[in-house]
């Protein structure tokens, strides 16, 4: 597996990984219909990622786990705070295909994205994650400090518990 930058031509492959990761995350939360919404047509997600790839390449990172041309995972991380002279980065999206988990792809994507954010001037980083999701254990394993639980909605869902993981020093991620 190699980590590489996303290209607009990758948008359909990313949309497939996103849907696989998103539905499995919500299954872990006992939510059969993610965010209480019906699945969006794949083309909507393709358009969503086509528009985000150039944005995050400019003000963050949009990286892929590429296995011989096949996309197994992706991460979107933002350094948009630098536009207001801030130095805190954020992991916006992260997903690895359910069938390709526990091969350290997630860890490598996060570490590479953190390095990219650090190169853009970010000194710390955080991620918001649904509290019942197994990703909490992943972020703990990567050394994230757990913050207070708060409640947020996912689309049209009832309020759900969410929690923030912080790394005060972006060089300590992973
Ligand atoms: C979270 C996610 C990206 C992790 O990807 P991954 O490639 O499987 O993670 P890694 O193999 O790099 O895991 C690194 C370490 O994290 C921990 N970890 C990862 N998944 C875990 C799980 N389900 N339960 C407990 N610990 C876990 C382990 O310590 C693991 O190291 P080990 O395998 O040597 O024990 C993946 O499970 C996923 O896509 N989940 C669904 C989408 C999601 O929840 N995204 C996060 C939204 S913010």
Features:
4 helices; 174 residues; single chain; binds coenzyme A; 33% helix
Provide a compact summary of the structure.
This protein has helices at residues 11-28, 42-58, 105-119, 135-141, and strands at 2-5, 60-67, 70-78, 88-96, 124-130, 145-152, 160-167. The protein is an alpha+beta fold.
What would your notes on this structure say?
The chain is about 35% helix and about 30% strand. With about 170 residues, the protein is an alpha+beta fold. It has a single domain (about 1-125), classed as Aminopeptidase (3-Layer(aba) Sandwich). Helix 1 crosses helix 2. The model has no long low-confidence stretch (mean pLDDT about 90). Bound molecules: coenzyme A (COA). Coenzyme A binds near residues 95, 102, 103, 127 and 135.
CATH class membership: Alpha Beta
Number of helices: 4
E-strand count: 7
Computed structural class:
alpha+beta
Q: Number of domains in the coordinates?
A: 1
The best one-word shape is globular
| Strand content range | 25-35%
Distance between the termini: 18 Å
CATH architecture: 3-Layer(aba) Sandwich
The protein's oligomeric status is single chain
The kinds of small molecule bound in this structure are:
coenzyme A
Strands side by side in the biggest sheet = 1-2-3-4-5-7-6
Low-confidence stretches: none
The percentage helix is 25-40%
- Average pLDDT rating: 92
Q: Which radius of gyration do the C-alpha atoms yield?
A: 15 Å
**CATH H-tier superfamily:** Gcn5-related N-acetyltransferase (GNAT)
Q: What's the main sheet like?
A: 7 strands, mixed
Order of helices and strands: EHHEEEHEHEE
**CATH T-level topology:** Aminopeptidase
């Amino acid at each position: 597996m190699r980590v590489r930058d996303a290209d607009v031509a990758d948008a359909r492959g990313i949309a497939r990984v996103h849907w696989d990761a998103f539905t499995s995350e919500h299954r872990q939360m006992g939510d059969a219909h993610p965010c209480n919404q019906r699945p969006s047509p794949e083309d909507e997600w393709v358009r969503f990622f086509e528009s985000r790839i150039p944005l995050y390449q400019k003000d963050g990172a949009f990286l892929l786990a590429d296995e011989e041309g096949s996309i197994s995972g992706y991460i979107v991380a933002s350094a948009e705070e630098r536009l207001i002279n801030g130095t805190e980065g954020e992991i916006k999206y992260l997903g690895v295909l359910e069938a390709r988990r526990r091969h350290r792809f997630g860890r490598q994507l996060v570490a590479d994205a953190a390095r990219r954010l650090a190169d853009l001037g970010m000194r710390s980083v955080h991620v918001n994650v649904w509290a019942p999701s197994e990703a909490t254990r992943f972020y703990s394993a990567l050394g994230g400090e757990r913050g207070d639980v708060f409640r947020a909605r996912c689309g049209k869902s009832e309020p759900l518990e969410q929690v923030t993981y912080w790394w005060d020093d972006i060089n300590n991620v992973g």
